Amino acid sequence: MLPFVFATGIESSSPTIVNGRIRRDQMEECGHYRQWQADFALVAQLGIRTLRYGVPLHRTWLGPGRYDWEFADQAFGELRRLGIEPIADLCHFGVPDWIGNFQNPDFPTLFSAYARDFALRYPWIRLYTPVNEMYVCAKFSALFGWWNEQARDHRSYVTALKHLAKANVLAMRAIVALRPDAVFVQSESSEYFHASGPDAVDDAERRNQLRFLSLDFNYGRPLDAMQREFVLDGGMTPDECRFFEEHALCCHCILGSDYYMTNEHDVDPDGTTHDAGETLGFAMIAREYFERYGLPLMHTETNLDQGSRGTESRDWLRCQWAHVRSLMRCGVPVVGFTWYSLTDQIDWHIELREARGIVNPRGLYDLQRCIRPVGGAYRDLIAAWDGRIASVDPAARPGA
């Protein structure tokens, strides 16, 4: 049985920009390295017992088989002492300089060895997100040209996507060999593309199929004809496609679904896209993902700036929780909800593309560790609902 959990996370993104000359280490920029003990205490004060947490990969993984575990030992040790269960986030948008970027064909195998060694060092950790938001990472790194390899072409995008997904699959297999009861919460962006007019319908539907690629790889779902043509044209081989179909570990997985105001997109007839705002909303989009994969679902990320009135983030929390309850009423096995992240972030309004140092007021606490109104609202929501939501039996899901 999977008990329902309320979670938050420590923002740990670490991509490089400006051709690798600047690393956007959000744990550094948001003060976590200096205040990690205080941050964990704040998590506990909110009544949260599950934390999405990843130590900095670029600081910890020094080379093949070489590690600096000092900070990880301290941080995970304190979480264990406090009784906060981590969802170990092993790769969050960046790799160490010695690997280069997500075009490196050795990355998946090297990363699986890191995951194995991590699991050996922390055998008490059960929950993992091996690679965070594969779709977003590949898109921002290799299609939009914003992060890491900063590429802008079809082949680079497909290469990054297959390497990220393969790294995730191999890491899961390495971990479950050591911890057979491991559970993998694959935090992935839930997207939707709307046609702005009749002439954009075909393009929007094509994008709506391609948004599933990372999870289709991860869960071993055979690609449809259009998806297959897309990845083969991008340099994948039939054997690489077959690898994913043969190595999936769905019985260990929870479908983590991330949703923000920017996850829905309007598609114009000329192929340009722009934000559609909250049009369908989380419940309708997440249900489409659930029906595709038939796995227990967790709302693994959401937030919104507090806004000029200071109430927008609280309203968004109420709205997202209503979506979660709506999914439950429809019989979707939802096992958790997450406001991400614990504190405000830096420069996420521009997806970390430039180092401007602008604070995004979307955390449960500000960067001085003072609680925000949404933090109080989340604390109250947890107090009201924690322990009052039925557990989910993953064996009862469709197709189990």
Q: Would you summarize the structure shown here?
A:
This is Family 1 glycosylhydrolase. InterPro entries: GH (IPR017853), Glyco_hydro_1 (IPR001360), Glycosyl_Hydrolase_39 (IPR051923). By secondary structure, the chain is of the alpha/beta class.
Write a structural description:
The chain is α/β, with parallel strands linked by helices. It has one domain: Glycosidases (TIM Barrel, Alpha-Beta Barrel), CATH 3.20.20. Helices cover 41% and strands 18% of the residues. The chain is built from 14 helices and 17 strands. Helix 6 (134-142) packs antiparallel against helix 7 (154-178) and helix 7 (154-178) packs parallel to helix 9. The protein starts with a strand and ends in a 15-residue tail after the last helix. The model has no long low-confidence stretch (mean pLDDT 96).
CATH topology assignment: TIM Barrel
Mean of residue pLDDT? 96
> How many domains would you count in the coordinates?
1
**At the fourth CATH level, what is the homologous superfamily?**
Glycosidases
Query: What shape does the CA trace take?
Result: globular
Q: How far do the termini sit from each other? A: 14 Å
Helix content class: 40-55%
Strands of the widest sheet, in order across it, are 1-4-7-8-9-11-14-15
What's the CATH class label?
Alpha Beta
Instruction: Please state the oligomeric state of the protein chains shown.
Output: single chain
Q: What value does the Rg take, in angstroms?
A: 20 Å
Q: Give the DSSP E fraction (strand runs of 2 or more residues).
A: 15-25%
Instruction: Quickly count the helices.
Output: 14
